[in-house]
Known about the structure:
alpha/beta, binds iron/sulfur cluster, disordered N terminus
Amino acid sequence: MSDINELHPLELEAPRFGIKKPPARFDKQGTRDDGERVKTALDSFVRDFSRTTAAYMEACVHCGQCAEACHFYVTTRDPRYTPIWKLEPFKQAYSREAGPFAWLFRTFNLKPAVTIGELEEWQELIYDSCTLCGRCTMICPMGIDIAALVGLARHGMFQAGLVPHELWAVAQRAEREGSPLGATPKVLKERIEWLADEHDVEIALDQAKADILVTLSSIEIMKYPRSIVAVAKILNHMGASWTLSSDGYEATNFGMLSGHTQWQRDISVKMIEAAIACGAKTLILPECGHAYGALRWEGANVYGRPLPFSVLHISEFLAENVKNGRIRLEKVDKSLTFHDPCQVSRRGGATQAPRDVLAALGVELREMPSTGDMNWCCGGGGGVVTIHRADPLRYKAFEIKMRQVEDTRAEVLATTCSNCRQTFDDGQAHYKWDKRMHSLLELVADNLAA
Ligand code: SF4
Ligand code: SF4
C-alpha cells in the first residue's frame, strides 16, 4: 500500500483553498440585495435575544477590562479588537429592536440602524478576530459571556450569507460529505487498513456491539493519523470493548463554528445515533476542543432529550483509567509544559484531567505563566485557522504562546486538541521556532507499561 501522505496530501492547506481575498458576502444563492441581508441578520439576532442575552446587553459598564484578556487586542493594541466592541451591531440591533426602550431608540433614531457596511466590517471581527476562547469572560467584572454572544451573532451572519468563504466551504463540505476535510467513510476505512497494517495494531471499525464508541477529529484522520493508532493501542491495552463507526465518527463541528444550527445538529446526531446503535455506554470525544463543547455541553439540547450514554473528552477518559489502574504507564523522565485548549479547560471544565494523566506519566510539569482556565488561546480556534486573510493576525496572537512556552524552559510541549496542535505547527513553521507540539494521547500510547 502507498504511503499515507501520498494517499492524502492534505497538510494544513486543505481547508483553505488558497483564496487571498474572499468576498465579504458569500452564500449559495449570492443574489440577495443588501437590505434583505441586513433584515435576515437582524431578524436572527432578535430571535436569539433571550433573557440572559438581554441581561448581558444591559450589564456592560464600559470598563474596558476585557480588552487586556484578548490575545488579538493585546498583541495589536487595535481598539477594534476589544471584545465588547465586536458585539456592537448586535447591541445596536438589541437597542433598536428588542430592548425595553426599543420604540424610543427607533422613534428618535438614538441608535442608528445597522447597515450592510457595518455587518461586512463586523464579519472580520466576529470570525477572524474571535476564537470564542472565553478568556474575556473570566476577566469581565459583570460576567458577560462575550464568547457565547459572538457564537450567537454568527447565526445571524450565516443566515445573511456573511460568513468567510473558507469557513462556509468547510462547513458545507462537512454537511455534504460527513467531514470538513474529505475524510469520508471510504477514506476512513482505507486509513484504518493502512494504519493497522503499518503499526501492527487492531483498530475496531463497525462492530455491531461495543461498550465504547470512539470518535475522531478530521484533523487527526488526515494530518495526525498516529492518534488513531494511539487510541487503539490504549483501548486494546485495557482490554476494552470498543469500536469506531462509519455512521458517526466525525466529531469536529463546523456547523457550530460557522453559525449554521441545523448543520451543527446533523453532525451531533450522527454520533449520538451511532452510539445508540452499538449500545455504547461511553462516547469518547477526540483531542479536539470545540467538539467537546458541541457534544458534551450542547449534545442533549440539540438532540432534544438526555443522551443514554456518558460523553468524555479523551483526556477525561485517560485520567479516569490511569486512576483506576486500567491504564498502566511507564515513567517519562522529562520536563513538560501543557497548553490548555480553551474549549476543553476554560469553557469545558476538564482542566484537571490532563494534569492527572501527566502526573501518572511522572513528568515534571512546568506550568506556563498564565495557565489552566486562564491560559492564552493559541489563536487558531473558533474556525480562525481556516480563514486565510486572518493569518497575519493569528501569527501575531501566537507570539504570546511562544513567549509563554519559552518562559517555562520545558523539554516537551503537549496539548490535547488537534486544532491547537495544527495552529502550533503552523506557527512553528512561520516563525521557524524550534519547539514541536505533542499530543497527550500519543504520549500515553507511547508509554504504556508492558
Ligand atoms: S472570546 Fe477570546 S478571542 Fe473572543 S473576544 Fe473574548 S478573549 Fe478575544
Ligand atoms: S469587561 Fe465586561 S463590563 Fe467591562 S467593557 Fe468588557 S464587557 Fe463591558
